[in-house]
Amino acid sequence: MGDGTGRREQIIAIATRLIASRGYSSTTVRDIADEAGILSGSLYHHFASKEAVLQEILHTFQHDTLSAFERIAAGGGSPREHLDQLIEHAFLTIEQRPDEVRIYQNETGFLMTQPGFEFLVDGAARIEEIWLEQITAGQRDGVFRDTVDPRLAFRFIRDAVWSTVFWYRPGGSHTAASLSANYLELLHSGLLAS
């Protein structure tokens, strides 16, 4: 059995679950190793440190998310369609990868200031750029109101969408699709019934 790759993936999966529920600082190498059924020392055959485990989790997650956003932005359609698709993809990601989203939400503010996590800063800047491009293009086209500061609009949307990971539970009365539909209706039409 190709133990190396499979074991690495198992360690990543366990670490992701533990860090998402306990937080990075409260999750020890021993916790991860115990869950994986290996000795703490054995974990170091696969990763140089606990930090290296977290780097891999976040690097993979951010890379996947950014790649999807790049594909959406490069596809056909209007800025409004692109923005809707970015939002829909974000809700789908929350449904499919909640632990990684939770880690990203909880840990990256601090980690962006730490050596070895510079990629987070670069990736976040590129993600913001993609979303801002859709908002400003929509304003130029007259589809979005130009009285709204595009950077503020991005931050309102980003924080509203991604923070749902803390209360949304898949399998309940809503799916990623219905969350998106409700959010987009609110974003497009507001709350006023006029």
Report how far the terminal alpha carbons are from each other.
Answer: 64 Å
Shape: elongated
Radius of gyration: 19 Å
By DSSP, the count of extended strands is 0
The secondary-structure class comes to mainly alpha
Total count of helical runs of at least 4 residues: 9
Helix content: over 70%
Task: Give average pLDDT, whole number.
Answer: 95
The largest sheet is:
none
- Tell me the series of helices and strands, N- to C-terminal: HHHHHHHHH
Oligomer status:
single chain
Residue stretches low in confidence (pLDDT < 50, at least 5 long) are none
Q: Bin the strand percentage.
A: under 5%
In short:
The protein has helices at residues 3-22, 29-36, 40-43, 50-74, 79-96, 98-111, 118-140, 150-162, 176-189. It is mainly α and 194 residues long.
What features would you describe in this structure?
- The chain has 194 residues and is mostly helical.
- Helix content is 72%, strand content 0%.
- Helix 5 packs antiparallel against helix 7.
- The longest helix has 25 residues.
- It is elongated and about 60 Å long.
- The termini are far apart.
